[in-house]
Design brief:
Layout (H helix, E strand, L loop, with lengths): L11 E5 L25 H13 L4 E5 L9 H9 L4 E6 L6 H10 L3 E5 L4 H6 L5 H14 L4 E7 L7 H8 L6 E6 L16 H12 L5 E4 L30 E4 L4 E3 L12 E2 L5 H5 L6 H4 L8 H5 L3 H4 L4 H8 L9 H4 L2
Parallel strand pairs: 1-2, 1-8, 2-3, 3-4, 4-5, 5-6, 6-7
Antiparallel strand pairs: 8-9, 9-10
Length: about 350
């Protein structure tokens, strides 16, 4: 299909290159720990990288599992960066070595994000003793090497109330951003993890520090929306949530080549195709692909979202979070705006 006739331009991708991980966190949405037996080979991954570049994808985030547990991660990253695709890595920070630092510099990684859940007792409880200290050591090592580093925190009932305490620690670290996202009840988190927290309190907290924090602070797309704080809680001043982008300009790829609109839509019913069977362009440009977003109309909104004055822009919030919290796509069950109306 001619590019000028196709309205959906791929801009970003989250690519899970392995499920192998040194942890088995109780809240892991992808149930990481052991690599799948049929994960994409190195050659297949390089072909995927070529296809992403051919579609002019501007940025790819490599995730796991744990990226550094895949021995060919550097080859995969280089296949992207050498083709002009900005590439970042999300890691738990536990296995980083001097050799990894050298490789990150060699391939020109744009940035590394380290997952840290909160204060040491919270973080170590779901991983293992010493993992918090190791994550902070990794952050400092990356920064000392000149690699931009950020922190991602997945919010639950146990850690959300302790954000102010955690911020006092983070503000002394050499990071450029802190992203707060809601822990979604998928994968391991479907049972045994209390994912409830007061989203409006989180938004107020972000707004209270956004102007003075020594780094960008932002809420991810599954927290919100359109409270008085909107425009000051998405990481950059004036930026507002403009609906789910899954299948519109972003895509997710898992370690066996399944393609979804978003890698957080971790349910087989959202698989649009597999890269061992069809090219990324064929999947992306399919006439019926990602219909839940590409054919969205306001009339599809349900519940409070159907009558919300921001429905045209918000479009019901995060599709993935909606699905795993309430089994619906077009109504946010935890919208901070609707909770106050």
């Amino acid at each position: 299909m001619k590019a000028e006739l196709f309205p959906f331009r791929l801009r970003s991708c989250v690519w899970e290159i392995t499920l192998a991980c040194c942890f088995r966190c109780a809240y892991c949405g992808s149930s990481g720990g052991k690599a799948r037996s049929n994960e994409l080979t190195t050659d297949e991954c390089i072909r995927v990288a070529q296809q992403l570049a051919a579609l002019s994808c501007a940025r790819v985030s490599l995730i796991g599992g744990e990226v550094f547990m895949r021995n060919d991660w550097e080859q995969i990253a280089a296949a992207l960066t050498t083709r002009g695709v900005k590439t970042c890595i999300i890691t738990n920070g536990f296995r980083l070595t001097p050799a990894h630092i050298e490789a990150l510099l060699r391939v020109g990684i744009e940035s590394v994000a380290v997952s840290v859940d909160g204060p040491a007792d919270v973080h170590d409880a779901f991983r293992q003793a010493g993992s918090y200290a190791r994550a902070f050591e990794t952050i400092r090592t990356l920064a000392d090497a000149g690699i931009p580093v950020s922190v991602i925190s997945a919010l639950r009932a146990d850690n959300a109330p302790r954000l102010p305490e955690f911020y006092e620690t983070l503000r002394r670290l050499p990071i450029f951003a802190w992203q707060l996202q809601a822990c979604s009840p998928m994968g391991n988190a479907r049972s045994g993890v209390d994912v409830d927290f007061d989203a409006h309190s989180v938004l107020r907290f972000i707004r209270s520090i956004a102007d003075t924090a020594p780094f960008y602070v932002g809420a991810a797309d599954n927290i919100g929306y359109y409270t008085a704080e909107e425009g000051g809680v998405r990481g950059l001043p004036g930026v507002v949530f403009r609906g789910c982008h899954a299948g519109l300009d972003t895509v997710g790829i898992d370690s066996v080549g399944n393609v979804r609109g978003c890698e957080s839509m971790y349910d087989d019913r959202f698989i649009e195709g597999n890269l061992r069977e069809r090219s990324l362009a064929e999947i992306w440009e399919g006439p019926d692909a990602f219909a839940y977003n590409r054919r969205f109309q306001r009339a599809m909104l349900t519940g409070k979202c159907a009558v919300c004055p921001h429905g045209d822009v918000c479009a019901g919030g995060c599709r993935s979070y909606n699905w795993f919290r309430a089994g619906t796509l077009y109504e946010s069950p935890v919208c901070a705006y609707s909770a106050k109306t």
